[in-house]
From TrEMBL:
Name the UniProt record assigns to this protein: NAD(P)-dependent dehydrogenase, short-chain alcohol dehydrogenase family
InterPro entries registered for this protein in UniProt: NAD(P)-bd_dom_sf, Sc_DH/Rdtase_CS, SDR_fam
Range of residues in the leader sequence: none
Molecular function GO labels: oxidoreductase activity
One Pfam family this sequence matches: adh_short_C2
Family statement drawn from the similarity comment of this UniProt entry: Belongs to the short-chain dehydrogenases/reductases (SDR) family.
Organism: Bradyrhizobium lablabi
SUPFAM superfamilies hit by this protein: NAD(P)-binding Rossmann-fold domains (SSF51735)
Length: 247
């Protein structure tokens, strides 16, 4: 039977493209979404239109109870074979000395704690130590982890730095238990995340700073994610791959 992949934030952007690419490679796709149910349903419909299998499950990864419900729904859908920790948020451009505690806490709760808690649930199911059949965890980092995002969102960059360390450490921890863990560091990708930070045109405005002189597409990130999920990447773990046009 085809394995299930849980994709957090699978309703739009990179998560949506990954859901469609994973379905085309035979995964049963559990599409997590925070609030945009219509977008999540549209992803499910487009997968089903191509004879794939998908379900949509509401899950704010800032909530542990939502995460437990997401994995319970995934269990009912089939055997878990992969997790894509894709859900992530930015905030309006601010200096650190202008940021509220609430903003910083939410950034860390969603981008860091949410990814770690989802990975915990995935390891419980996939680790051979717990009777599982192995699997793959792909985390979404960002080139911001290396650039620091000064005057914009240093808190976001720091959350992605945490994802890089988490990827390395968890990968070592479960390498002998059939689970590979890797991260992608996207560069400037054309999605709605920039609008959510208050600047819809941000990626295009900064594209001249990319060595390849263009923004990337969600599909270009999804292609790297599904490669990491595949047996073609069978010797890849604790690894972080820049998919950034050289940025
Ligand atoms: P996006 O277009 O803004 O889409 C965000 C997705 O995450 C949506 O499906 C959204 O669900 C979901 N989401 C938002 N908050 C959530 C929460 N609290 N819990 C669960 N799901 C939540 O984002 P994107 O550009 O595709 O980014 C995806 C990942 O790539 C993020 O981790 C981001 O940091 C990373 N990344 C993006 C870029 C870029 O340039 N786009 C660059 C580097 C890294 P709803 O539809 O329900 O709102």
């Amino acid at each position: 039977m085809d394995k299930v992949v849980v994709i957090t934030g699978g309703s739009r952007g990179i998560g949506r493209a990954t859901a469609i690419a994973a379905a085309s490679r035979g995964f049963r796709v559990c599409v997590g979404y925070a609030s945009n149910e219509a977008a999540a349903r549209q992803v499910v419909t487009s997968i089903e239109a191509r004879n794939g299998k998908a379900i949509a499950v509401k899950c704010d990864v800032g909530s542990e109870s939502d995460i437990l419900a997401l994995f319970k729904a995934a269990d009912a859908f089939g055997t878990l074979g992969a997790l894509v920790n894709n859900a992530g948020i930015v905030g309006p451009s601010l200096r650190v000395d202008e940021m509220s505690a609430g903003r910083i806490e939410r950034m860390m709760a969603v981008n860091v704690a949410g990814s770690i808690l989802c990975a915990r649930e995935a390891v419980k199911r996939m680790s051979t130590r717990h009777g599982g059949q192995g699997g793959v965890i792909v985390n979404l980092s960002s080139v911001a982890a290396k650039l620091g995002a000064p005057n914009t969102y240093v808190d976001y960059a720091a959350s992605k730095g945490a994802i890089d360390s988490f990827t390395i450490g968890l990968g070592y921890e479960v390498a002998g238990e059939g689970i590979r863990v890797a991260a992608i560091r996207p560069g400037l990708i054309d999605t709605e995340i920039h609008a959510s930070g208050g600047e819809p045109d941000r990626a295009h405005r900064l594209s001249h700073m990319v060595p390849m002189k263009r923004v990337g597409t969600a599909e270009e990130i999804a292609n790297a994610i599904v490669w990491l999920m595949s047996d073609d990447a069978s010797y890849v773990t604790s690894a972080i791959l820049d998919v950034s046009g050289g940025r």
